[in-house]
Amino acid sequence: MEVHRNSTKRAGSHWAPRDTNSTTTKSRAYRVEYNTTPLAPVLDSLIDEMSHPSRDDGEPKLSVLSNTRLTSLVGLILFVELLAIGITVPAIGQLFTLHAVVGYLLIPPLALKVASTSYRFVQYYLRNPRYYRAGPPHPLLRIAAPLLVGATVILMLSGVMLMIVGPYSTSAQTWRTVHQASFVVWFVVAAMHIVAYFPKALYQGGGELGLRRFGMLRFSSARPSAALLRIGIALAFGFAGVLVVAWGYRYIAPWHQVLTHGFAGIRH
Predict the structure, then answer these.
(1) pLDDT of 96-150, one tens digit each?
(2) Cα dist. 161→5, 69, 72, 257 in Å?
(3) What is the pTM of this model?
(4) Which of 82, 102, 135, 206 has the fewest Cβ atoms within 10 Å of its own Cβ atom?
(5) Which residues face 214 on adjacent strands?
(6) Residue 58, Cα to own-chain centre: how many angstroms?
(7) What is the residue extent of each domain of the chain?
(8) C-alpha dist (Å) from residue 17 to 10, 12, 13, 23, 27
């Protein structure tokens, strides 16, 4: 009588049939579990949108590409400045001057970014044909946008007020609490915003600068008119931050002394 290895096990042997389908079964079970979550279709559509930034190069979004390009350019400027200010946060005591300077630099580009996105928002809800056909942002980003704008305004306003009132003011602790709390909210929402929009900003921003590709990166080949004007506006608002620094630099020294030497380090 013939004995088959796949159906029996020898006495004393440690051999057992291998479950070749275990990995596939686990993967399939994960997909089933993921696909049954309510947010699965929403997240899938968001990932799909992030993975195809070139869709802005075709209709119906091509008709509003000038607005997209300006938003992308200022977004890239903000990305560099936010990266710089993020480095200062863990060592705010030692890097406070840099933190404050970059914070000042952020104000004009942030104002331009809010203006550019708000213009598109208003035009869409006013049923401007071009903007209405281009459609709104992804639902998740659409919901997060007002929270991001509100947190940004409060974060920047509280930061400026902290500098103006100074460390000895009775309202300094209140503004500091508002600044720290708004930063937590802003960080969470901004992180999602940056992850979602950075591929588009890089793709369109590179295209606006006339780049075709850089290594593995490819950029938009669309060439909407007035590119130099948009580049000039983005750079102008970037350099306008220097004027804000020149205005507010005098408020940095008292805070720097407090964070470095304590309150005893300030002379009355």
Answers:
(1) 999 999 999 999 999 999 999 999 999 999 999 999 999 988 888 999 999 999 9
(2) 79, 33, 29, 18
(3) 0.81
(4) 135
(5) 217
(6) 24
(7) 74-188+225-265
(8) 12, 15, 12, 15, 20
